[in-house]
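Troubleshooting: if your tokenizer reports a length mismatch, compare against these two reference records.
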Amino acid sequence: MPSAGDILLKKEIVVGAAGRMFMKTKYAAGVILTGLVCVGTSSAQSGGAEVKAPPNIVFIMADDLGFSDLGCYGGEAATPNLDRLAAEGVRFSQYYNCGKCEPTRAALMTGHRNTPQIGFLAERAKTFMPAVLKDQGYRTILAGKWHVSRHPLDRGFERFFGMEEGACDYYTGSGRLQLVREKFPVPAAGFYTTDAFTDHALKFLDEAKTQNDAQPFFLYLAYDTPHAAIELPTQAYPAGGGLKGGLQWLGTPGHIINTASGTVDSWVHPDYAAAE
């Protein structure tokens, strides 16, 4: 559990960053959880007592990233946005996994370490987090890499864009990407998995707000990066944010997103290019 000093509660928002933890042997574990964000908490009066509405939950996972790669855990790389999440919320200090991507995801989704009781890919696990939250009235969304047994829609998720397998080519999807249960046609150019997962997560959240803004949501944004294949983006991330700035889904052949128009596997941040 995080120490009291690692937790900061604000009136309307609880934000957290979780780092991939070392096991007791000090070998690096498999994955980093880069964010646990609870947003949109509200309250109402019921019989004179205050009743808090369930928080929205956003859980972001970066695949096979080192525990000390982030600035908030002592890393040398500049990660200001993730550092801000850590400073404003919860920084995990005890998260155990088995040193690779699949058992870490199984542990997160089931609450169990990857032991013989739940099996490889958590195939024998009886309880999954999205199913539990769905039963509690949450809208459940997955964008990204699943890599746990059975299809994510059979484990409690209602919306899914991503892959069931453990890895794919960032630019082609290796024929593995799905939207809900249908194969997703990846264009021959202008595609990058990391940004496509982000954009579909935003699209699903916009869909949730439009259909039932009062329903709480659980978004599991599970990137395949930096897990193999390690492929650089084509250009700098666009300036701005929100619905009008930053990453945008264009949807036209060859220009499906606005972050993949340069040379494949080419872009390095100027700070690090100069260091080379």
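Reference record two:
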Amino acid sequence: MGEVVSASVTRHVGAAFQGFSTSLFINDDWKVSHKLTVNLGLRYDYQQQPVECWNGMSNIDLLPQIPGTEFYGRTVYAGVDGQPRPLRNSDGKDFGPRLGTAYDIFGGGRTVFRAGFANGLNQSGSFGVITSAADARIIQFGLKLIF
């Protein structure tokens, strides 16, 4: 026998996951001058780690030593033997700032340069994994011409 080199979370047949996610957003615009407008915003995202209704998730814990051997690792089950039901903690620190500006180049409202920056979070699937905020930076620039 050798060491464990990989592990995965198994989704059992008939699994029913539950959880929730919510987002809040605040934004404000400031007219710095008759040509320049700045807008600032802050977004907060919370996504609970999914919980399988019948504790039907398992994982491998590589820390405990198998009694009587020199090997490490054991299968753990959600909600059993002190394991939490979601098998991992939810992250409640997912804030994403927003910054934008609009500059009326000639002052007539017909040629406006707009730029914006947002630091957000990637989510995929119905119970997506929230990855680091660095994975979802959005930077946009635009020029609006009205003729």
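Descriptive notes for reference record two:
- DSSP finds no helices and ten strands in the chain.
- The first strand starts at residue 10 and ends at 11.
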